[in-house]
Amino acid sequence: MPDDKPGKPDQVTVALYDNDPTMVEVSWEAPDDHHSDIEAYEVRFLTNDGAFVASPHCDGAANATIISGLACQVSMQHLRTLTGLPRDSRIRAIVRATNARGTGAYSEVNTNTLGATIETEPSNMSVVSIDVPSTTNTVTKVVWTPLTGSSRGGKNVEIEKYEIYWDQGTPTEDGSSWVSLTVITGADLA
Amino acid sequence: MTGLDGGTTYSFKLRAYNKYGHGDFTTPEVSINTSQPPAKPEPPVLTVTQGGFVKIAWDEPDANHRPVLGYKIEIAKAAPLPNNGGPDFVERPAVCSGETQASVRYCLVKMEDLRAEPYLLTYGTLVVARVSARNERGMSAPSEPNTDVNGARIQVEPTQMQPPLRVTGAVGDTAGTGPTQLVVTWT
Asked: Scanning every residue of chain B, which has its alpha carbon at the shortest distance from the alpha carbon of A118?
């Protein structure tokens, strides 16, 4: 078989990175190199506008680790900016390989419905309120509705803690009179 | 939140964290001026007035940072609660309204009202009452009942008298009944 540009890769896998779940890992199988070592991979992400854009964090031409590891990692924050996709959107990507004979075709867009989705910081926090009946001279109760579903930052994202601030009246060094009062974590989140 | 000072305004806001960091603070923040129902009042003082009324008087308790708006005055019925449940206190605003009398903090109660339903107190019975105070946060615990044995006791009209006796004096007794005078005695 004569040397030729690389074959068309199979669909990539997009998942949260095991070593840092705030990052997304795109991985793929090496395509047929047609007897010429692959020298670069190019990964592009599908944007909210339907275009495919490259990320400098997945530039397989400049990073030998990407070529040998057949994977690259991109922070979720970078992906949100790069793609403009709203929260919980499936992250789609394509990849193509280059060898000395040229650049092969892009893979098909990944269609795995279990892949990573766009995640964010929590949002849509409901208004906090005071439980007046249980308030006394020395005790009060602050109540709020725990975040659920997508408002946690994504339907698969867990809330780690709530932090309550109170206005202690006197500005601190940063000019704000609001100071952290307590943090609700663990079993108290329920 | 504990360790607060009564009558002080506290404001709160919060935010949630996930693995990416925190979201925005809740808006608007919420505030509370800490307070609670009034403190338990002291027992009322009951006395009998010259007009034959029972005067129930009380003092204002610690308002706990909200003005006292009214009182609840309860008087014990003659019949206690079953199973040694203690005095059966009943509020009758028509007899003693702690709301309309809040500014002066006393009531004048007719003896006949205490002898009638639902109290049915009998002659010589010590009138026992208790008082609760109300502010916008709610009603206080009731005071302890008055226990002063020298307090007001039930009085009644005189019972029917025995017929008077016509007395005939002895001869020569100028103080006795005679042609020009009648001496009547009674028990």
From this structure: B20
